[in-house]
Amino acid sequence: MKRLIAVALLGTLLLGVNAIAAGAVDGPWKRDVAKSKLSGAAPNSGTRAYTESKDGTTLDAKAIGADGKAASMHVTLTHDGKAQPITGNPATDGGTGKAIDAHTTGFTLSRGATVADTVHRAVSADGRTLTVHNAGTRPDGTTYDDTLVIDRQ
In the chain, what are the helix, strand and coil shares in percent, each to the nearest 5? Predict the structure, then answer.
């Protein structure tokens, strides 16, 4: 369960890059449970806050799992486009991202030298909805293909 929550939290992680417009993702967000489609036992709730700066993008995320247990994550990744370490997550240990446009980011998460997950993250034109498509392989070898719908708070 912790792995699923960790993947869901990381799946929404923006690997910051300079081309992302300041404010496109900045601020607090809350997952729309009804609109999100997650494989496996999905967390009951999820909130996150993104902060962008010239030094990178910080994500503070919290979730309550289907089992009622809380999980949280705090990570900052730089804007240099190079692989960056991710600690405190059993599902991944590194990530690399790139800007597609001012509201869209694509990135990969790795476990060792192997790409474990791909993520496509897009903020709507009106800035009110964040949609994240995550696909990959969990540490136990099972695959997943999830779509998170997250509303700006």
Answer: 5, 50, 40
